[in-house]
Amino acid sequence: MQPQAPVFVARGLTKVYGSGDSRVVALKDVDLDIRQGEFIVLLGPSGSGKSTLLNILGGLDAPTSGTARWRDHELTGASDEQLTTYRREHVGFVFQFYNLIPSLTVEENVRLVAQIASNPMTPAEALELVGLSHRAGHFPSQLSGGEQQRVAVARAIVKRPDILLCDEPTGALDVDTGRLVLAAIAKVNAELNTTTAVITHNSAIAGMAHRVLRLSGGRIVKEEPNPRRIRAEDVTW
Amino acid sequence: MVNVLDIKVARDLWSMRLQVLSIALLVAAGVAVFVMSVSNYQALIGAMEAHYRNERFADIFVGMTRAPLSVVDRLREIDGIGIVEPRVAEPVRVIREDTNLPISGRVISLPAAGQPLLNRLHLVQGRWPDPLRPEEVIINAAYAEARAVRSGETIEVVLNGRLQGFRVVGTALSPEFIFATRAAVPLPDDRNFVVVWASEDAMAGAFDMKGAFNDALMTLAPGARPQHVLEEVDRLLAPYGGTGAYGRSDQPSHRFLKDELAEQETLSIVMPSVFFGIAAFLLNVVVGRMVEAQRGQIASLKALGFANRTIALHYFKLVTAIALLGSAIGLVVGRWFAIGVVGSYGAFFRFPSLEAQLEPWLLVAAALVSVGAANLAAASAVYRIAILAPAEAMRPETPPALHTFSWLQTIGSQRIPLQYIIAARTILGRPVRTLLTTVGIALAIPLILFGLYWFDAIDYMIDVSFGRIERGDAFVTFTEPVSADALYELRAIPGVLEAEVQRVVPITLRAGHRAYRTSATGLDSASELKVLRDSALRPIAVPSDGIMLSRTIARQLDLKAGDSVTIEVLEGSRTVREVTVRRISDDILGASVTLQRTALNRLMREGPVANVATFRFDPGQSELLWSRIRSMPKIEGSSVKALWFALFNETIGGMVVIGALVLSGFGMLIAIGVVYNSARIALQERAWELASLRIIGLTRREVSAVIISELVVELIVAIPAGLLIGRYLIELIASARASESFQIPAVIDRSSYAIAALLVIGAAIASFITIRRRIEKLDLVAVLKTRD
């Protein structure tokens, strides 16, 4: 797949938490372009700023200074309502702790997003993509961790998001289940041409990306294109 | 070194300050109502006892036609008699320039030495009469205040048919006239009833009582048998026209006071105790959930190796601090209200000194109940979490067996937004918690109703007693029975629209060894200005023969319809006769004995006479009308409904209204506290889930709908349930507290239900707004970093 024009443009992103003695600089003057359909892996140790960067891209957090734009959506300075609309219409999230709603079944968790999206696929299609059609009527508490994370992936993609943001999606999983989840994410990226960003501190996953960004101390310290992508099934750790 | 867990207590208290405050206010409201009411009731009882003791209130009272003073020694010889105080007491009329209304009263002799031995006077203002000046008198303070009579003024009294001027030199309180009232008037009317204490000499002269007396007060010696003493006194005084000795329980002022205190006991002890009990239960619910919401922290402490006991102690400290804070606020506020409310009693309860009491045991009891309820809740919540393995406790609570609600999946597959499915599953999935919250909100409603109810009850009593039973605008009493001519004379007065007469006679009813002193009312069968009614307000016809009794009297004498009872007439003929009880009636106000007037006349061996007239009049002509009535012969006193209402509103009304306002005010405070806490804790428990919903793109409104719809469902169940519980509790209390002269009906107006419901809804809306604010402030990023 040929990289296209950038859909994400961030310039001079800086995020400072607290003030005075408790002041922590999470991001320092970060510039970033992400192109349509690109699969990016953000690597870095704890505290390197990768989650902060992802949260700003996902409209969950606002930078202290700098600008972030997705297509014609200005993310910096946007109101809470505008950010909610942005998340609702364009962004799919997958988190380390799945964040499923315990009182809804698998199918309902997926439909929860489908009901608020403008052009969703059916929950059944989304579950098919992650290979969980047979678990549709179960509650999250009846599933394994890997299954729960795949439900989270299905929930993230059911709206046909433009961007899929994944924060440590395999962080709580063993290798085998982790691979299943990664395969689902890669499939969405490939088949739906969804711009995908995955945070991890597991460098093995970097092999799946078009491009790898290494973060440290709040800065992007290294940017490596990855011409030889591997499949999820071949990832080992 | 301060224990780190204690630092956590302080920090938790601070970080949850709004919630802490609302729980503390809940405690405070319960404690305040309890402390205020109980201490006020104690103040009344204490003031009554002190007054009776200091002014030496008699144990036995007796009237007679005339007895020589030598009889006093014979009275003293009766076994069981202590002190005997002979005196002269007569009904009188008072004439005032500024009113045409006839004012009735009682004139009582004062010994030359000054204070009598019994029923002494507590001088409020002025001085004692000079023994050498027989024209000097003391009058009762209530009348003096109501009519603004000052020392030095002259009071015109009709003594034995002759008008005589006395000079008022002082005003006083007496234990026998705490409530100054006369037969036929249902409630004290200070403006139209006066007690005059005049010198023995003046009285003896006016009533031909030299060396004689017609009224006696006595005390019982220790160990006396009252019944025996009464019988001996009656036997001794029979030749002198004794009207039957009676004890305190039949003394009009004491009987009325006793009933008033019984009513106050309901308002001050029973309701506040139930109120406090409910508040303690709500505290238990709220604290339990507050501690449960700290599940993760408790689990972490356990995982770190803290013993269950240490953890429990930690939470005990937390909730004890909240309960003590609430108790302290409650005590201060309760004490403050007590002083104010006791002040409002003064106009009604005529005691020499009436001060709010504050007994240490009350403070301790109130604080112990609050702290106890809070700790019990904390202990059970900590226990429930502590029995789990730390690893399990650290995970969020396992969702309940959701498959049992498969019908919700069916419904869910239709068009119901999933946030409502989440709410429904939460409600059904945790039935115990849902039930507790619902019961908690429901129980706040009776607390509001307890206060509002009194307004309704009083309105109802006024409406029934003075709109439907006593339908006349005024009545007058005569000094002695008058013939039917008086009625024609009354009807002929311009402005009188309708008039009827009644015969009212003091009697004692005897059934076996029980006796009840009251008065019998003879009504004409076609009476329209006095219509007796049953508890459903249906008119009751006066039985054509025999008598009709109030249920309270029937109960005291152990009588039922068809039984016979002895009537002893206490004036005139002194007839004693057996009559049949034809009917038991459920009067709302007062305890009455009613029969046909013709039957009563026959019993009295008299012609068709009457001594009370009731009438309706045109208020536009009242000036002339009353001057005509005043000039009628044999008029003793009067009572005008409109004036009586005004008096009622000033005294009983004012007193109950303050008590009721305080009660309903605190009830509202508790309702708000409970609703707010339920909402707040629900939010706290679900913050993680709600933030997840926000992250995946649900709007604040959609996320709020999850938690608000849960609360709405609970409110929909709780409000009607609470109204029903309130009604039931009030009925229970009213029936348990029915007293002799008051049977406060369990009537609750629709508006009271509406107010109670609206207040809870209002509290809910305020809570919803807070929830919305909190949801707006949910830290979405923080939620991603932790599982719970």
Task: Please give the structural blueprint.
The complex is a heterodimer of chains A (237) and B (788).
Chain A: E1 6-17, E2 24-35, E3 39-43, H1 50-57, E4 65-70, E5 73-74, H2 80-90, E6 91-95, H3 106-114, H4 123-129, H5 145-157, E7 163-167, H6 175-192, E8 195-200, E9 211-216, E10 219-225
Helix pairs in contact in A: 3-4, 3-5, 4-5, 5-6
Chain B: H1 4-15, H2 17-54, E1 60-68, H3 70-77, E2 81-87, E3 89-95, E4 103-110, E5 122-126, E6 136-140, H4 141-146, E7 154-159, E8 162-173, E9 193-199, H5 200-207, E10 212-220, H6 226-237, E11 246-247, H7 252-292, H8 295-303, H9 308-345, H10 360-386, H11 390-394, H12 406-412, H13 418-429, H14 431-469, E12 474-482, H15 484-492, E13 496-511, E14 514-523, E15 547-550, H16 551-557, E16 564-569, E17 576-585, E18 593-596, H17 597-603, E19 610-617, H18 622-630, E20 635-640, H19 641-695, H20 700-736, H21 750-776, H22 780-785
Parallel strand pairs in B: 4-9, 6-8, 14-18, 15-17
Antiparallel strand pairs in B: 1-10, 1-11, 2-10, 3-4, 3-7, 5-8, 6-9, 7-8, 12-19, 12-20, 13-14, 13-16, 13-19, 15-18, 16-17
Helix pairs in contact in B: 1-9, 2-7, 2-9, 2-10, 2-19, 7-10, 7-14, 7-19, 9-10, 9-19, 13-20, 14-19, 14-20, 14-21, 19-20, 19-21, 20-21
